[in-house]
Write a structure and sequence with these properties.
Blueprint: H1 9-25, H2 27-39, H3 48-60, E1 65-67, E2 76-83, E3 91-98, H4 112-132, E4 139-146, H5 155-161, E5 170-172, E6 175-177, E7 188-197, H6 213-228, E8 236-243, E9 254-263, H7 269-286, E10 289-294, H8 306-318, H9 327-331, H10 339-343, E11 348-349, E12 352-354, H11 364-371, H12 374-395, H13 399-420
Bound molecules: the ligand NCCCC(=O)N[C@@H](CCCN)C(=O)O.
Length: 431
């Protein structure tokens, strides 16, 4: 790949070193930011303190235009620029995403405080180098988007629909994990909430008067467990009984289930139809009424951009990252993210990073690791690799074009695959 006009490799390296220097200079306030978010965990769409803390962070930095409650109550946007290039040049808008929602009961067990920190650090690093190098060959704007509700709901999807990603050329974020990995296969997911309504009665005195909603939930749960054997190995189906009654001597009049349905690509219709039959048949068997409510948004799988992936990997290696080569890890579904939907509207990457602990995400041990000082080295190293990748995109001519061409081709192919899939519904469900 060529390097911008009169800017040779040496200049590119100077810029990258400067990015790293700017991030290192800010490390104390970045740790404080992350620690504050970690100390007051808030669940999806309720991240008021995290929102306020991030808004304060960017308001205290020079030069950022900060919009609090940007399109969603707990979203924000901070922008800097345009800067560099010549008046009238096209502006390259580089986006960094911050997540900051926690899990119910176990706090920041997925390390989203570190995601917020990575986004903030990378943006500060990129702005720092652009400011100090007055000869940016391209006109650049840096956008930080605070995206709530990844664990539940899909804040990024709300923001896509509200136009928040319009005009962005490329977008970066990174997610805590057990290893450094440029890409792990995140799946499409659709959440479903199911309510059974029966009739209460004394469970010993006149049980025949009751209609048992807990039985419906248990039958549905078992239907889905039986279905699992017939699913493709890389599909996932799992859930909980959220409500199962009040007391053993009251036949439960109400029960509630929550399930996640996942497939490796965006077409969830077949799995959805199969699951729906499991829920409905349980209602029929028990005489309950059933409400099946699929979540407002489906998350898509992540559309890869290998051009960006390669750059990130090269940059990460220069910083000492050892990317996993374990094929089990690289090929095993790693959950889902609403970044999947973003990856279909703007080219971007969502690498995973080691945080200095072998604890697994969504455990109390991971919560502890996400707040520990030990995670800081890895978190800032990840931010550096992202910002260095942004520098590549800005300084190497034709690279952004390549990134965008790969993106357009990827979207086109995915659409073609979706169109050739059999129609959703009963026809795709075995008898
Ligand atoms: N691979 C990203 C992990 C983040 C995560 O755990 N996301 C949730 C999203 C659930 C959406 N209902 C997940 O369970 O995968």
């Amino acid at each position: 790949m060529a390097i911008a006009g009169d800017m040779g490799r040496e200049n590119l390296n100077t810029w990258k070193n400067k990015v790293n220097h700017c991030i290192d200079e800010a490390k104390e306030k970045l740790f404080l930011l992350s620690k504050d978010i970690w100390s007051s965990p808030e669940i999806a769409y309720e991240e008021k303190l995290a929102h306020d803390r991030l808004v304060r962070f960017f308001s205290e930095e020079k030069g950022w235009q900060v919009e609090s409650h940007y399109k969603l109550d707990t979203a924000f946007r901070a922008t800097w620029g345009p800067f560099g290039g010549k008046d009238g040049d096209n502006v390259v808008n580089v986006g960094f995403l911050c997540e900051y929602d926690a899990l119910p009961g176990i706090g920041h067990a997925c390390g989203h405080n570190l995601i917020a920190e990575v986004g903030a650090a990378a943006a500060i690093g990129l702005k720092g180098v652009l400011e100090s190098e007055s000869n940016s060959p391209v006109r650049v704007k840096v956008t930080v988007l605070g995206t709530p509700a990844e664990e539940d709901g899909g804040g990024k999807i709300d923001l896509i629909l509200a136009g928040a990603f319009e005009g962005m050329d490329v977008v970066f974020m990174a997610h805590p994990s057990q290893e450094d990995a440029v890409y792990l296969p995140d799946m499409a997911v659709h959440d479903v909430n199911v309510k059974y309504h029966g009739k209460a009665s004394h469970a010993a005195a006149y049980p025949w008067e009751g209609v048992n909603a807990l039985d419906a939930a248990v039958i549905a749960y078992n239907n889905l467990s039986a279905l699992r054997q017939q699913l493709k190995p890389d599909w996932r189906l799992h859930g909980i009984i959220k409500h199962g009654g009040l007391k053993p001597n009251i036949i439960p009049a109400y029960s509630e289930l929550e399930f996640y349905l996942r497939t490796p690509n965006r077409d969830l219709s077949c799995l959805r139809a199969k699951a729906e039959m499991c829920f409905r048949s349980a209602a029929m068997a028990t005489g309950c009424q059933v409400d099946i409510m699929f979540a407002k948004h489906e998350y898509h799988n992540i559309l890869r951009n290998t051009t960006l992936d390669q750059l990130y990997e090269e940059n990460g290696r220069t910083l000492g990252m050892q990317f996993t080569t374990d094929q089990n890890v690289l090929n095993t579904p790693s959950g889902s993210t609403d970044f999947g939907n973003v990856s279909y509207v703007v080219p971007g990457i969502h690498p995973y990073f080691y945080i200095g602990s072998d604890a697994l995400n969504h455990t109390e041990e991971y919560t502890a690791a996400s707040g520990a000082e030990e995670a800081q080295f890895y978190t800032l190293r990840t931010a550096k690799a992202l910002a260095m990748t942004a520098v590549d995109v800005l300084l190497r001519p034709d690279l952004l074009k390549e990134v965008k061409e790969e993106f357009a081709q990827g979207v086109f192919c995915e659409q073609a695959v979706s169109k050739s899939a059999p129609p959703a519904g009963a026809a795709s469900v075995p008898h």
